[in-house]
Each structure stands twice: as C-alpha cells, then as structure tokens.
Design a protein that fits this description.
Elements lengths: L1 E2 L2 E2 L2 E4 L2 E5 L6 E6 L12 H4 L15 H8 L1 H4 L5 E6 L16 H13 L14 E6 L1 H17 L9 H7 E7 L8 H7 L14 H11 L1 H14 L3 E7 L17 H4 L5 E5 L15 H23 L8 H6 L5 H18 L3
Parallel strand pairs: 5-6, 5-7, 7-8, 8-9, 9-10
Antiparallel strand pairs: 1-2, 3-4, 4-6
Helix pairs in contact: 4-5, 5-13, 9-13
Length: 351
C-alpha cells in the first residue's frame, strides 16, 4: 500500500513505526538509525536509512524491512516470519530552534515508554519470540546506551516498567551496520563534524553529536561492556562494515568512515560490504550481501531459540517479570531479581 508515492508504514506513535507484523512472528527486529552525517536524505531517517538501493532515479521507494523478509525464500522455507519495527528520533547533528534538541536521556526515555512500555507496541513480550536490535552507524552505539537505560529502569520494580524485564529476557541479538565500536580516526571525526578556524560557518552541534565525540574517545570501554553483557546473557552479536569510500558532499575527497578495525564487535562475525557508509545498510535485493548477512543472523537466532525452548519443553519455568513485580517472592524469584540486577550492574560498569 502506498501513500503519495511512498510505501505506507504504520505509525504506532511518534517514536515507533512498524514495517510489518505477521500474525505469529518468529522474531521481532527493531531498527535504529544513526545521526545525519552528510547530504543524504534525512527528512525521515527512521525510514530512509532502510530504503532499498536502486540505480534507477525514477525507481519507486521501497523499504526493505517491509518487503524483503516476506519474500525471502530462505526464511519462508523455514517458516520464519519477521515483525519489523523502526525507532524514530531527532537525528539532526546541528542544533537549531526546532531540531537537535534531544539528548540521550530524552531519547532513551522515549524508547522505554513508546517502544517497550506501550501496550500498542508490545515488543519483546512473547515467550519464545526473540528480539534482535539492528543499528546503523551511531545507531549501534545508541543501542548500547538504550539497553543500559532499560536495565536500570527494570530494576526500579515499578508497574510502569513491568514490560522491561521480559524484553531483556527476550533480547537475543545485536546486529551492527558500520558501527564504530573501536573508535573512528580523528581525521574522520573532523570531516564528519567540522570545527575550528577552518570552518567557514559557526555550527552548534546537538547533544548527540557531543555524545558521539565523547563515546568515540572512550569507545573501547563501552565495547568491552557490550561484549561482556552479550556473552553473559546469551546475546549473539554480528555486523557488517563498508569497504568503499564515502562522498560526504563537502567538496573534499571521499573517505572511508568505518573500517574493519573500528567495526570489530567482539567474537561476532563481521562481513565486508562493497558499499559506502550510507548504503552499507541499503541492499538492492534479497540476494545482496548486506541483506543476507542479517538474514543469516536471523535464522541462527530463531533456530537457537527453538532449540532452547524444545529442550525446556515440559519444564515449569517461571517468567522473570513475574518475580520482579512481586514484593519479596520465593527464593527462585529472588534469584531472578538478582540476575536482572547483575545484568544492569555489568552493563553499567562500561560507562
């Protein structure tokens, strides 16, 4: 279905859009875009980031998380159906009167309340349905900040956060498209966010840009925390990075933004994609390597979840969230609370 020539994507609220929602999804995937870095289309980055790449100027707009999963024979042959959601936030790198006003806390709070806490979205609440978070560029670093925020909120035990422990329990995968886990070179940061005497126009960057620069200096510690958290809680990590240089539209030579060295994501697999930074997450079709890398990851996560639930069949396994809502609880309940507490403390130690 299209509207004014654009595919119609369901808007659930101001911060959450839904690409597709089959009746009985095997997996739920949340897509998180990055900060505006060049002259790419940023009018709707929660959508345009995930647009199908086409060499034809007049090609109709298509968002691949909306269409590819359902027509991917590899997934359908395994009866894997995907619910795909995209998080929306202000991605402007410049601060103006009406853009670039949010900081990481605002975005994280909006994510918790609009994505997980909303009964209309209800993501990560289905037993046996794993959640995968997919981030592009800064969106990958933002995912780590979001999970840290969710973990802290989950420990507060309030009814407003009743969905958070179950979401964390179902979180099984991180997939990163050109996320700089091990820092960008100073020259690259300067090209992305120019400053100093050589900049003809004085620019006021938003809080996210400042955060990005801070994280880039201390990203190794953030990466170590993510790696430990993922390993301790059965979260699989994978990713892809660009092998081509990127034209930033600043009349300077194209540069490679995220290299293999900076894209390393712990023990997870890492694929080289013959695209630039903006197109590393924009496949041309279901056979494209940048789509297949994620599709293979989805199959691994779903198969692993099915095996674990098959092994646990017939066992009376309590749900974590039921203990978090209970005051005191049984010994097994208190143990679950301690486990959730350990999750948050371990993640938070990276900051």
């Amino acid at each position: 279905m299209e509207h004014n020539g654009e595919p119609r994507v369901r808007k659930i609220n101001d911060n959450v859009y839904e690409f597709c929602n089959p009746d009985n999804p095997s997996v739920e995937i949340i897509f998180v875009h990055g900060i505006q870095m060049g002259n790419e289309d940023v009018s709707k980055p929660h959508l345009s980031t995930w647009k199908v790449k086409s060499e034809k100027a007049d090609a109709p707009t298509e968002y691949w998380p909306q269409t590819f999963f359902a027509k991917d024979e590899h997934l359908t042959s395994k009866n894997i159906s995907v619910r795909a959601l995209t998080a929306c936030y202000d991605a402007a790198k410049d601060r103006t009167d009406n853009r670039g006003r949010l900081d990481i806390y605002n975005i994280a709070e909006n994510f918790v309340n609009s994505m997980i806490g909303s009964d209309r979205v209800c993501v990560g609440q289905r037993a046996g349905v794993p959640v995968i978070m997919v981030g592009h560029s800064f969106g990958g670093l933002l995912i780590m900040e979001l999970v840290d925020h969710i973990s802290k909120k989950a420990r507060q035990n309030g009814s407003a956060y009743k969905n958070l422990p179950k979401f964390l329990n179902n979180l099984k995968g991180f997939f990163f498209y050109s996320t700089p886990h091990l820092a960008l070179q100073d020259a690259v940061v300067q090209r992305l966010f120019p400053s100093g005497d050589n900049v003809p126009v004085v620019r006021t960057y938003n809080a996210l840009t400042t955060l990005f620069k801070q994280l880039n200096k201390d990203v190794a510690r953030l990466h170590e925390g993510m790696t430990k958290y993922a390993a301790n809680h059965g979260i699989e990590v994978s990713g892809a990075f660009e092998s081509n240089e990127t034209d930033l539209g600043d009349n300077l030579e194209p540069i490679k933004i995220v290299t293999e060295a900076s894209a390393g994501c712990g023990a997870g697999t890492l694929s080289a994609i013959r695209e630039d930074h903006f197109n590393v997450c924009r496949p041309t079709d279901v056979q494209s390597s940048n789509y297949q890398a994620l599709a293979d990851f989805v199959v691994r996560i779903v198969n692993r979840e099915k095996e674990e639930h098959s092994d646990a069949a017939g066992l009376d396994l309590p749900e974590v969230c039921s203990f978090v809502r209970e005051e005191g609880g049984t010994e097994s309940g208190r143990e679950a609370e301690r486990e959730e507490s350990d999750r948050s403390e371990l993640w938070g130690s990276a900051f």
